[in-house]
Here is the input.
Amino acid sequence: MSQAGETFFTVVGCMDGRVQEPVTAFGREKFGAKFADTITEAGIVGLIARGPDQNFVENLEFKLLVSIEKHHSKGILVDGHQECAGNPVDDERHKEDVRKSVEFIRELIEDKVPVTGVFVVRDGDSWKAEEI
Ligand SMILES: [Zn+2]
Here is the structure.
């Protein structure tokens, strides 16, 4: 499944290519783990916050449990970001969607590992992840 010494964390976030690197860097630092198991949808926190259907939840739970139980994930990051095409709401609403998603995922995985929310913001030509 994975070799000894390979360490993982988990990202539940937007598919947007601009946020992948800053979120991965944030997670490596936060959890002291190297590899990001990444679960994405367009604007995923909007989907979760507004009440996902059963299939979505079962699929999400399966992926989270693979990451936690097979890869011994050290923690989960949940991200939202500015200028999101998949969840086009203002920043405050988007951050609230992240917080709701963090709570939802904590319950879904029964607090097996820590869950942290981040919001990714434009910083000139690059992007940076901020814990919320
Ligand atoms: Zn997005």
Summary: The helical segments are 17-31, 44-49, 54-70, 91-108. The domain at 8-131 is CATH 3.40.1050.10 (Beta-carbonic Anhydrase; Chain A).
